[in-house]
Amino acid sequence: MFLTKVLIASFCAYVVADMAPNYPEPGTIWKSGTEYEISWFDDKKAPSISKAWKNFKIDFMTGDNNNQKFLKNVAKNLDASQLDSINWTAPVVKPHSAIYFLMFTNEKGDNAWTTRFAITDEEDKLTKPQHAVQPDGAKIPWGVGRMVSDAKGFPLSNVAYSMTPAMASAAERNAAVEIAVSNNSNQKVKLSLGVLFVSAAASLLLNL
C-alpha cells in the first residue's frame, strides 16, 4: 500500500471566542464531488457559542499561515445556537494535497480554523505539499491550491488574508501532526446524491 507521510498544521487553537471546529480533522482526505459534513462544537469557554457565534461564515482557504488565500465561501449567516454542522460538496481542486483548510469568522471578526486537509480525485492520488517550511521558518508544510470548479463552476478568487503574529504563533504551536495518507485511508464520507457538473470553462482549466 502506497503511503505518503505529511504534516498538518492546526489553526483552531487561536480563537477569541469559543468556536471549536472539529471536522475536517487531522488526516482527513476528501474526494471531489462527494458531500461531507463540516462540524464544530462549544469548547465551554466564555462567551458561550450561542452568544458569540450567532452569525458566522465558513470560507474554503489555502496558502501559508501569514498569507491565507480565499478560494470560496462555503456558507454564511450561520447560527451556532441552532446548528453544529453543515454539509458541503468538495470542489475540484489542483493540486491534490493536504494544503486546504476552513476558516470560521463571526460578525466581530473572530476566527477559528480547521486543520489542513487533502482533496483528491477519482484516482485517490495525493502529492506532498509544495513547501515543507512556512515563510517564517516554522516547520509546517503548506502550499497554494486552486479551484478548478465546483458544482456551479465558480472560478478561483485571488483574495488573501493575513494573520496577526499571535495567530501565526498559535498555528505554529499546534503544528506537526504526522499522519499517513493512503489511497485506502478510512474516511468520514457521506455519499452525495447529486452529480458534480463541470462547466465548459472549468473543463478547459482542468486540462491545463
TrEMBL record:
Keyword check for Signal, yes or no: yes
What residues does the Yeast cell wall synthesis Kre9/Knh1-like N-terminal domain cover? 24-119
What name is this protein filed under? Yeast cell wall synthesis Kre9/Knh1-like N-terminal domain-containing protein
The signal peptide, as residue positions, is 1-17
Q: Which PANTHER family match?
A: GPI ANCHORED SERINE-THREONINE RICH PROTEIN (AFU_ORTHOLOGUE AFUA_1G03630), MATRIX PROTEIN, PUTATIVE (AFU_ORTHOLOGUE AFUA_8G05410)-RELATED
Q: Name one Pfam family in it.
A: Kre9_KNH
Keywords from UniProt, A to Z, are: Signal
Stored InterPro entries: Kre9/Knh1-like_N, SRP1/TIP1-like
